[in-house]
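Subject: Interface between my chains keeps coming out wrong

I've been trying for a while to get a sensible model of this assembly. When I model each chain on its own everything looks fine, but I need the whole thing in one frame so I can look at the contacts. Pasting all components below, labels as-is. Any help appreciated, I'm running out of ideas.
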Amino acid sequence: MAKLVLIVCDALRDDAAAAQMGYLEHLVEQNIASRYTVVAQMPTMSRPNYETIHTGVPSSVHGITSNYEIRPSKMPNLFSLARGQNLTTAASAFYWYSELYNGTVPYDPVMHHEVDDETLNIQHGRFYGVPALHTVQPDVEVFSAGAMLARRFQPDYLLIHPMQADDIGETYGGDSVQYRRTVIAQDAIIANLLSRLQPAGYNVIVTSDHGMSDDPSTHGGSLPEVRHVPLYYIPTSGGGLGNTGQKVSQLQVAPTICNLLNIPIPNTMTAPPLEF
Ligand SMILES: [Zn+2]
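Reply #2:
Try treating it as a single job with all components included. I did that and got this:
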């Protein structure tokens, strides 16, 4: 069965990806990848949309209503569903994912930063950041840890979650040379990673939780810059649809991943999966 890597580039807006991610756009132009514009759920904030991407339901249903709602997920989610099918799970991600899916509240970096535990929803986790100090790890380190997890444990479902675009965007804004350079760098890292992951049988999805306004440190509402994020699907088969031009809901991401991993879609996920 095909394995899947989900890359959530935090705060990657759709227009910046289209303009700056030259390798991913090349794969789209060659019909090797499929491209969509995802309309992110509101509030266009990190923790609510980490949960939306992983549960397929909106904030008012899953209850993670702000970044300050710090508790484990109560919904069927991609990690718990994968474990229910005896699939192997892993993540290289911000520690909020550990709080949501491994239930590590309060998060203790000594205990929870690096975990290999078959009983957890995220069985192999490498988490960065600590409460109160939301320091971001360099993207190349986050991607490297993800690639290491793929090589060492061959997880069926692997999440890689780099945050430098969010950090840089909050400092300089989404219409800044610093933000654009960060997006270009992510594209180059992903290009390098694909050549390692695809021979190992991994299909890859690249998307985001929310975008970034032109102003520094502003996202959360309804502007296109913060709601529109990309979704690239790069199958190992090489048979993509190119740029579909379609606007799809962020609620469709979770059931789409269920289908790709042969996980039965739970009743809670009512949005239709994408058909590739
Ligand atoms: Zn975010």
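Reply #3:
Confirming on my end. The CA atoms of residues 91 and 125 lie 5 Å apart.
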